[in-house]
Automatic annotation (TrEMBL):
Enzyme class at the top of the EC tree: ligase
Name under which the protein is recorded: 5-formyltetrahydrofolate cyclo-ligase
Family annotation (InterPro entries): FTHF_cligase, FTHF_cligase-like_sf, NagB/RpiA_transferase-like
Cofactor(s) of this protein: Mg(2+)
């Protein structure tokens, strides 16, 4: 399928999630925290990466705060200042200073002492624009997460990738490209989706 089709899906699903009102966003964010807490993989988890919501995305702050309460180290993505298209993951705590990146998304201020190598993360919770019944993920188009996850695909090493999305971001089928990394788990406010890859 053409890139224009992918862009049409992005436009459609982004408008869906942007139309969720503030009251519903709060309910969805709290439900997400509950669903994430039900993940069996958390029993051995020490370090997780999340992201701060933008553009109508599911608010991750209640989940981040829950991880803090559990004593699980939490990291946020930072656009790499030198390696184009790459992400770094920096420790995120209540007193971490945040700055706006080139996409107007809040990220931790660059601090080399706070960087966690991707290989040491247990879970990377990934944002997505849309997902389908087979676990295919459609991102914003920058490829940051696909590049981050590619070295760990088809191995038992490295982090587990888990997608987070509103229920309304599900579509029947997504057009996939060779570089797309499908997910084995996606969590929405109402359901945990699992696929065997």
């Amino acid at each position: 399928m053409s890139l224009s089709t992918r862009q049409q899906i992005r436009t459609l699903v982004r408008s869906r999630r942007q139309s969720i009102n503030q009251e519903q966003q709060v309910i969805h964010a709290n439900n997400l925290m509950t669903r994430v807490g039900e993940l069996s993989v958390l029993s051995t988890t020490r370090k997780v990466a999340l992201y701060l919501a933008t553009d109508g995305e599911l608010d991750t702050l209640p989940t981040i705060q829950w991880f803090w309460q559990q004593g699980i180290e939490t990291y946020l993505p930072v656009i790499h200042p030198f390696s184009k298209g790459q992400l770094l993951f920096l420790r995120y705590a209540q007193d971490t200073p945040l700055v706006l990146n080139q996409y107007k998304i809040l990220e931790p201020k660059l601090n080399q002492q706070a960087i966690c190598p991707v290989s040491e993360l247990d879970i990377i919770f990934t944002p997505l624009v849309a997902f389908d019944d087979s676990g295919q993920r459609l991102g914003m188009g920058g490829g940051y997460y696909d590049r981050t996850l590619a070295p760990w695909e088809n191995t038992d090493l490295g982090p587990t990738a888990i997608g987070l999305a509103h229920d309304c971001q599900q579509v029947d089928t997504l057009p996939s490209e060779s570089w797309d990394i499908p997910l084995t788990t996606i969590v929405t406010p109402n359901k945990i989706w699992h696929w065997n890859k």
